[in-house]
Amino acid sequence: MTTMTFFKNLVIAGVWSVCGTALGAAPAVEHAPAITAKWIWKAQPDYNPYNQTILARKSFTLEQPRQAVLYITADSFYRLRINGQWVNDGPCRSWPQHFQYDVINAASYLVTGKNQIEIVARYFGVGDFHHVPKQAGLLAQLDVTLASGKVKSIISDRSWEIAEADGWVVNTPKQCIQMEPFEVYDARQDGDLKFSRAKELYEFSQGPWKDLQPRDVALLTRQPVSFKAFGGAHVVKCDGWNFCLPAVRLMHPGLIEANNNVGAPCGMSCLLQSESGCAITLQADTFKVAIDGQLAPNDQEIKLSAGNHLVVALVHDLTGHKKEKTLRFMNPQGFKLVNPLDTKHENPWCFLKFTEFNFAINDLHVHQYLDEVSEFVVKQKGYFKLTDQLLREVKTPVDFEKSLKPRAEQMSSKDMFVLDPNWQFQQRRVIGDASSLVKQPQAMLFNTPEMTTVNPSSQGDVELMCDLGEQEIGYYSLDMMAPAGVEVDIFGIEYITPEGRLQHTGGYRNGMRYITREGLNHFVSLKRRSGRYLYLTLHNQKAPVQIRNFSLIESTYPVNAVGSFHCSDARLDQIWAISARALKLCMEDTFTDCPLYEQTHWVGDARNEALMAYPVFGAADIGRRCIKITAQSLEHYPIVGCQTPSSWDILIPAWSFLWGMSTWDYYWYSGDEQFLREVYPDVIRNLKGAEKCVNDSNLFSGPYWNMFDWSGADQNQKTVLHNSMFMVGAIDVALKEAKVLHDDSHTVWLKTLRQRLVDGVNSLWDEHKKAYPDSIHDDGSVSASTCQHTSFLSILYDIVSPTNRAAAQENTVNPPEKMVRLGSPFAGLYLLETLEKLGLEDRIVEEIYHDYLPMLETGATTVWEKFATSSAGPVGFPTRSHCHGWSSAPSYFLNRIVLGVRPTAAGGQAILLSPHLSNLTWANGSIATIKGPISVSWKVGADKSVEISCQVPEGVDVKFEANASLAGRTVTLNGQKVQ
Fold first, then answer.
1. SS3 364
2. Is the peptide bond before 791 cis (omega within 30 degrees of 0)?
3. How far apart are the C-alpha atoms of 865 and 438, rounded to whole Å?
């Protein structure tokens, strides 16, 4: 096999190599393996590069392999192939202080004779919300047991060959602040790679990755999914010059972070030359731009006379999560740009540094720097004062020479800018229909020999839309014949309005670019992405392109769909189904918030999702892992982190307290007392850290991100009442766990701390408003705002005094007009829990109808981040994220209320059975427990009697309890009369 053929087979696997690949669970590791593999990489001066991808390979021979286990990990990503078969992507997310390697059963991929391991490894070199990169590194060890009984080990060491994988373009922006760099693959560059011997960096346990342990969660699936429909073809156009400046990285080279408060005090300048005058339109949401000393309006036409014009663009968004700053010339005609330092330089821009104003502040400690005289504040004010002056006063090349040339640096375009195709999709204009240019459009939707032919347009680029039929997440897979140099952009969105308006994903670059080689092209993306509608656009097309297959390879946690729900109202069935599907798409190596925008393990989101997923899918290992990986954050923070692991240092106290509750949820589902014993010290440690923030008013108060809900409540204060209430809930969990563990060493302290918080909260009850205030302002004044949330939390966690309980219940069930109401399904879970505690089961079903039917009415296939009635969504669209796992409460409560199954003992040992009819005539379904599925069905007879059937695993105790919906009816359970 030639080197070129080998590399094509390695990194651009066709769909056929995926379809037959079966991923089983990793083999059990009973004891720590003897790993002698070395950490390796390509030999180079710097092992902290930005967005570097390498190809590593090792050939070896085997005689009758019988068993094989492969241990593999990398910082930050790997794709493993053995003998041409795609085996796995990894590793799972983990803190560098507790790094994990994958354990893979590799026997089925090996043959007698020559074998080859091939690994694409990618180092991000930048912080995200999933990793804390340390440096480039790859480690692999294959232990093979032969028929003879001999064990042969193939370890990563200097005998491996490594080459730079030039096909993956380095200079791209981050996909978004939460994720790694944007994926661009240029197949023209995957020719004869220059392999050399690997550089051994460290012994197994000697690198910056500590406490290496095997992966503790199942490997993700790979299931090819075809599109359900071809959605049409259009000719689109988007002309412009896009200059995307990686400002933070240029000002802070090598810094690994994802914080808001990292400055980008810089800019750029060029000369605009026009022979006969011109009109320009700029898009510059992150720059202030001046032309000849006049501020240029954004996205409006500017007319310029003939001659030279000095353009100065200085960063305006000095801080924030936009690490790249973009300036764009739309539809440029009649002018050119040249470099003011050297008019013949290939890069028309020079880079401007304001180094004296540079700063990098950890967001966790930013409150320490907010004083008016702090260096942090002084630098920001100084930067804006100077740059505003320069934008006004630097009008000519002479002014530039005097004021900006000392700051100017000449750089190549490749070093100064990154390639960002995203804008061409989001800014595209539809020119016309392209149906006549597309032959057999349906052919590309199926894995057959048929091909879709796309002819080029002289008017613009041809864009194809394909509909998956429902929200999905996975890898893009493409199989096509094309001339060299066609830029194939694939971007996904979640929603299209009935009028046909696309809901773009804003600053989240939800797509990739593939640049074709001449002839046959097969490609599977490295990145998992989500959406329902995929847009494939062919830029720079000069000749016909034939697409044999375009599909998505779904990749999620391998859920076992044990839970189910069906009833006489099909709408509730649909609501349950889209809730369960959203949960599935938000299950990776941890629970995540959403599959598109972030894919982040937000700890509060994970508490909701685990609680809902246990009865639907089981998935105990993923719940346990979320608890463990978050407990490890106590090595970094005073209370557990809000997204773990992460390069963003920030705390949401409510999420920390919800993590404590998640430890009880896991124990209640699993009955795993040993794990509870292991994690209980961290539960106490979390509360000890929180206690340091309890002020003299007996309220939790801290300079953190004190959110709970997207509702408009007054929560941007240090002292927010819901934090103290959640802390009480976390204390209650600790007390229950102490009882299970027979540990009373903290009981007195916990009860005392609980009472302090209860007293502090209740001291703020407003007798006039009959409610709690949202918060206390820093000046000591009481917030004028009241919200529904504090009332239902006060009931849920037994905080409100008996004299005020009725008023709190009224606020919960029927909040007054001026009270801030629920804003998202996330907080909705806690409202529904409170309604259940109040015995208002029918109201829960009413809330589900009210909040989720609007989703069905828009054709939603997953549940949304926000309610349709929320004012916090993007203008003109019902929500931001159309798939958010935290919103899946119907999949939890419909089984608890309508089927009436409520566990009453840890580990599924006992249940209370009490179906609520809720104006239905029949219902059936099942619930996952650690002991096995529980199935329930019931129906109302013609005589109004109710027949219930319930099957439970052996050893599970069932207790029937009547309720108001069954009053006056004859009820039988498994043929026996119970009422």
1. helix
2. no
3. 37
- Amino acid identity of residue 598, one-letter, is E
Instruction: Give CA–CA dist 560/221, Å, rounded.
Output: 12
Q: Which two tokens stand for residue 598?
A: 């972030």
Residue 479, classed as helix, strand or coil, is strand
Sign, CA torsion 188/193/199/205: positive
Bridge partners of residue 524, in order along the sequence: 477
Smallest Cα–Cα separation from 479: which of 450, 440, 508, 458? 450
871 band by pLDDT with thresholds 50, 70 and 90: low
- How does pLDDT run across 595-628, given as a tens digit for each residue? 999 999 999 999 999 999 999 999 999 999 999 9
In order of 341, 352, 439, 596, 801, the CA distances from 408 in angstroms are 8, 5, 53, 39, 66
AA identity, residue 442: Q
Instruction: Extract the tokens encoding 766.
Output: 């407003």
Task: Extract the tokens encoding 942.
Answer: 């013609």
Nearest 5°: phi and psi at 338?
-135, 155
Look up residue 236 and give its DSSP letter: E
For 161, counting Cβ atoms within 10 Å of its Cβ (0-12 exposed, 13-18 middle, 19+ buried), the class is: middle
CB burial readout 419-456, b (16+ within 10 A) else e:
bbbbbbbbbbeeeeebeebbeebebbbebeeebbbbeb
Closest CA to 70 of 140, 165, 9: 140
Alpha-carbon distance of 879 to 872, in angstroms, equals 8
Q: CA–CA separation, 121 vs 959, rounded Å? A: 55
Q: Judge whether 779 and 771 are in contact, CB under 8 Å.
A: no
Q: In sequence order, which residues have a C-beta less than 8 Å from that of residue 739 and are 6 or more positions away?
A: none
Tell me how far apart the alpha carbons of residues 824 and 878 are, in angstroms, rounded to a whole number: 12
Residue with the two structure tokens 């999709």: 425
Angle subtended by helix axes 603-617 and 570-585, to nearest 10 = 120
Q: Is the pLDDT of residue 373 over 70?
A: no
Binned at pLDDT 50, 70 and 90, residue 424 comes out as very high
- Of residues 630 and 27, the one with the higher pLDDT is 630
E strand or H helix at 856, and its extent?
A: helix 841-857
- Which amino acid appears at position 955 of this protein? G
Structure-token pair, residue 385: 């004062």
Could you give the CA distance from residue 292 to residue 290 in angstroms, rounded to a whole number? 6
As to burial, measured by CB atoms within 10 angstroms (0-12 exposed, 13-18 middle, 19+ buried), residue 24 is exposed
Considering the entire predicted model, what is its pTM?
Answer: 0.94
Instruction: Supply the DSSP symbol for 446.
Output: S
Q: Are strands 901-903 and 910-913 parallel, antiparallel or unpaired?
A: antiparallel
| Residue carrying the six token digits 């008023």 | 807
In order of their start, the domains of the chain are: 3-218 (2.60.120.260), 225-236+432-554 (2.60.120.260), 247-416 (2.60.120), 564-571+600-897 (1.50.10.10), 900-979 (2.60.420.10)
Cβ atoms within 10 Å, residue 45: 5
User: Exposed (0-12), middle (13-18) or buried (19+): which is 285, by Cβ within 10 Å?
Assistant: middle
Q: What is the pLDDT of residue 57?
A: 98
DSSP secondary structure letters along 783-835: PS-BBHHHHHHHHHTT-S-HHHHHHHHHHHHS--TTSB---SHHHHHHHHHHH
Q: What is the CB neighbour count within 10 angstroms for residue 802?
A: 6
Q: Is the CA virtual torsion 713, 761, 828, 882 positive or negative?
A: positive
pLDDT at 872: 54
Burial of 594 (0-12, 13-18, 19+ CB in 10 A): buried
**Number of neighbours of residue 968 by Cβ within 10 angstroms:** 7
Q: Determine contact, residues 913/901, Cβ cutoff 8 Å.
A: yes
CA distance 886 to 591: 10
Nearest-5° angle of CA 273, CA 278, CA 282?
A: 85
Amino acid sitting at position 624 = R
3-class DSSP state of 106: coil
Check: CB of residue 158 under 8 Å from CB of residue 200. yes
